[in-house]
Amino acid sequence: MNLNVEHLCVSFSEANIVRDVSLRVNNKQFVGLIGPNGCGKSTLLKSIYKVIKPRQGDVYLSELDVIKSSPRKVAQKLGVVGQFNELSFDFTVREMVAMGRTPHKGMLETDNQEDDSIVTAALHKVNLDTYAGRSYNSLSGGEKQRVILARVLAQQPEFMILDEPTNHLDIKYQLQILNIVKRLDIGILAALHDLTLAAQYCDYLYVMKEGQVAASGKPEDILTKELIGEVFDVACETYRNPVTGALGIAYLETR
Amino acid sequence: MQTALVPPSEPKPKQSMIHSRSGFMAIIAVLLIIAVLSVGAAVSFGQVAIPFSQSYRILLYHITSIQIGDIHDLSSGSFVDIIWKIRLPRVLMAMFIGAGLTLCGTIMQAAVQNPLADPYILGISSGASLGATFAILIGFGSMGLLGQTGLAFWAFAGAVGASLLVLILASAGSKMTSVKLVLAGMVINALCTAFANFIVYFANNAEGIKTVTFWTMGSLAASSWDKLPLISISVALAIFFFLLQFRVLNAMLLGDETAVTLGIHLGAYRRAYMIITALITGVMVASCGMIGFVGLIIPHLVRGLVGSDHRRLLPASVLFGAIFLIWTDVIARTIVPNVELPIGIITALIGAPMFMYMLIKKGYAFGGQS
């Protein structure tokens, strides 16, 4: 599935948080969304996955009109990995992951064998096979985030949005989550904080500043010291990493 | 990273007894059996103790017309009348009220995503008290039979009116959130209590004030067969309805945003659930006053047993609540000879220590296993 966002505007009372943003994610493309805190990338993503109603603009998942369709219809195609949060009520890991089946089930339908095996497979994919009976709230941050990812996997989405899923995670879990997602081979739009990780995993990048797209293109083309300096307000030098051959960024003193 | 992968040949992770399907069915079966036996046992207790064997025979005869031994033996005493006309409707009432309060508590806790919620959180208790106080002290209470229906009517009207006010207040201005709901509930509570106290203060009616006090402590003493249909049908319908809503209820516990990504927009559901629970609680409060702690504590207790998944939690907690209230009512009418204690005192006396224990006990994680 591909994602088309056209001229999206979001405003809260008087403030325009997202101003006329258009972007496109082709099928099986891993597209990153980067930008400093408060640039509107989270708001943009939330209005794509229907939590916030945009003031104007269109969002299409292939043929599906996301804004006009029911949440259920959208959830059958679109999975969202947000940041994990504490729950006031606890669930077991397996119950959490099984909730990913919600959009595919009628109100009266109970989970069948197929759902069970989907849930088991999702747990396996994130290496949490042995955690099924554990309490979600007792897990560490990295484990919780993997449970959330497993829930989205159980949703069997054809497109996935990652809303800063790797915040506060150890580098091991950041890599693990991005690797799992990358291997899914579906269209992905991900808000990421770490620029080197973004450069490493994304096929294409959109850079946001003050609610607008400041630049877009292949990571190695647009992640220049001039752009990083302008958008993130830090001085840096970019280089080719001698070990991996990938793009490296060395941050210098803040101006 | 690859080394962290668990080989697929690893044995299937074992699930605890209560989280397996057969274990859960066993729990439900046991609770059902206990509920049925409790009804039979509970009618034997009271000012007049009736042997178990006799009460079961009387119940069996009345329900199925099967005679065990000589039934005329039994009818010779007044046992049949005591059991059939006085105690059975009361025990059944306790059963439905217990189930209903627990159901409403569970739903409220999910709807406001707050473990401290109970059926009265929407200002229902204070609204009902205000209505009842109004009815008792401003004159509808003295009109005999009409007065009785008047009291129930005003309590119901107060409960529903207060909860509608809370709902309106919570969704005024911006989107309804669970925090706003809880706060709105507190505000309306304070307001209704103030009005009720105002009436009591100026009422100069000692008998009436005593009635008000008694009413706010809850009692099943006024139960009778003709009050039962309304309660039983509304509670049973609500249970049936919410059993079908388990997916939405589960999603509610994850919060609004996650629920949307799972395809459920909570706003409309939350409002509908609130209104349904407000109506049911209003009906219950109108017929038996306020019985505290049941709706708060039983859901937590049962979560510790079967987890937070509403597919398991709802049936188990409803049965548990029914059994709990049957026995607290037995205690209320037998613990002090020749005196009927208000049941609200008993539920709080049992409920509070239970809750303390759950708070202190290590590992109670509001539904999960640690």
Automatic annotation (TrEMBL), chain A:
Annotated ranges, domain ABC transporter: 3-235
CDD domains with a match to the protein in the record: ABC_Iron-Siderophores_B12_Hemin
Keywords assigned: ATP-binding, Nucleotide-binding, Transport
InterPro entries: AAA+_ATPase, ABC_transporter-like_ATP-bd, ABC_transporter-like_CS, P-loop_NTPase
One GO MF term: ATP hydrolysis activity
PANTHER family in UniProt: ABC TRANSPORTER ATP-BINDING PROTEIN (PTHR42794:SF2), HEMIN IMPORT ATP-BINDING PROTEIN HMUV (PTHR42794)
Protein name (database record): ATP-binding cassette domain-containing protein
Organism: Paenibacillus monticola
TrEMBL record, chain B:
Keywords: Cell membrane, Membrane, Transmembrane, Transmembrane helix, Transport
Transmembrane portions of the chain: 24-50, 91-108, 120-145, 151-169, 181-204, 224-244, 275-301, 313-335, 341-360
Locations listed in the record: Cell membrane
Record has Magnesium as a keyword: no
Record's bilayer topology term: Multi-pass membrane protein
Record carries keyword Cell membrane: yes
Gene3D superfamilies: ABC transporter involved in vitamin B12 uptake, BtuC
GO biological process: siderophore-iron import into cell
GO molecular function annotations of the record: transmembrane transporter activity
Superkingdom as given in the UniProt entry: Bacteria
One cellular component term from this protein's GO annotations in UniProt: plasma membrane
Family listed: Belongs to the binding-protein-dependent transport system permease family. FecCD subfamily.
Protein known as: Iron chelate uptake ABC transporter family permease subunit
Originating organism: Paenibacillus monticola
Lineage: Bacteria, Bacillati, Bacillota, Bacilli, Bacillales
